[in-house]
Amino acid sequence: MHKPTAGWHADTIAIHGGEAPQDPHGALVAPLYQTSTFVFDSTHQGGQRFAGEEAGYIYSRLGNPTVNQLEQRIAELEGMQAGAAAATGMGAVAATMMAFLQQGDHVVASDAIYGCSFALFDHLFRRFGVEVSFVDMSDLEQTKAAFRDNTQLVFLETPANPHLKLVDIAAVSKLAHHHKARLVVDNTFMTPLLQRPGEFGADLVVHSATKYLNGHGDVVAGLVTGRSEDIELIKFTTLKDMGATMSPHDAWLILRGLKTLPVRMQRHCENALAVVAFLQEMQPAGMISRLYFPGVNQDEQSSHESDLLQTQMKAAGAVIAFDMSDGFRAATRLLDQLSMIKLAVSLGDAESLIQHPASMTHSPLTPEARAAAGIGDGLVRLSVGLEHADDIITDLRQAFTSLKKGAENTALNTD
Ligand code: 3LM
């Protein structure tokens, strides 16, 4: 059986969590069970396994030892009872939500969420008779007013994609539980190393494991953790029957990636602070009108956000967003000037990645929904990677400088 990990630090769980008993050959690393099906000793045994009367594997869509090890490890990292693995982050979000919803139900969701989660709720759920109210979850009165008698689920991201708005998980979980609804938190931007939503009352925690958890840009995958009975329901209804399960090879890569998650997150966060300091310098130059990063947001929310940074997060993370003063044109010109920093969606990889949310990750939102969520056409999102901070800053500096030169030349030519 799996060794108990009580008392282990997250750094140790990231390496040993979910470890199987000793391999018959003494292999250090968990073997990859790259198999679709498992052979039964007898028809009696096959029948018993299907009936749930004998433990053991049947078929990889229903369970696989490599995938199970990852499910166990992420559950231990999040401090939750159990975990389930999905083919993608969206597979995890969809399977989690749909396990608890039926026609006529209602969901309260944050208006600041990843574009495809918005599309799933706003387009697909509506077709199946589930209504979703999108609210500004930093406004607890607005959130409270959105609940109805048929509210089953509450969904939020904090920090939110793309502009890092923070939500008070404990306060929203109180509202959800008062209405007997489950709270689902997407913890992709933080990882369990920086934030454990279950400690603040979240019932289910979902991840795009494509991002920091795998961390090497070579997998798309999703994970969900929660109470055992909820995870059983997700695994053996939506995940199994929709077929959104994770491949053993992806699970194996994520198990490998997780081993370095603690050291990677530390470096990501240090680099992000250096880049934020550089961008703060840019602001007086007038090229950036607003910088978004937990702890430096400059509005009336900032003191509340600083409190949340202290109470619910261990660090601010490594995704930064900023509004270019000259809007869409300046944002796209800046992105096209970068050289080492890659122009690509996704985040949490070793490579620094930069993208334009309005035309990319958040293009599934209607212009009205983008405006309500505060995602402007001049907004840029940067995932700070693991390169040397000086090299990231050098690339940003040369892009800003050439943008400035371009603007001065245009001004001269029009004089
Ligand atoms: C992105 N995000 O660049 P997958 N939850 C959050 C996410 O950020 C994402 C998902 C779920 C991005 C992907 S855009 C085409 C690229 C907070 C994904 C979904 O299904 O593994 O992509 O996760 O912001």
UniProtKB/TrEMBL annotation:
Kindly state which keywords UniProt assigns to this record, in alphabetical order.
Answer: Lyase, Pyridoxal phosphate
Which named protein is this?
Methionine gamma-lyase
- Which positions are tagged coiled coil? none
Where are the N6-(pyridoxal phosphate)lysine modifications? K211
- One example GO MF annotation: methionine gamma-lyase activity
Name any GO cellular component annotation.
cytoplasm
GO BP terms: transsulfuration
One Pfam family, short name:
Cys_Met_Meta_PP
Protein family (similarity comment):
Belongs to the trans-sulfuration enzymes family.
Q: Does the keyword tRNA-binding apply?
A: no
Cofactor requirement? pyridoxal 5'-phosphate
PANTHER family assigned? CYSTATHIONINE GAMMA-LYASE, TRANS-SULFURATION ENZYME FAMILY MEMBER
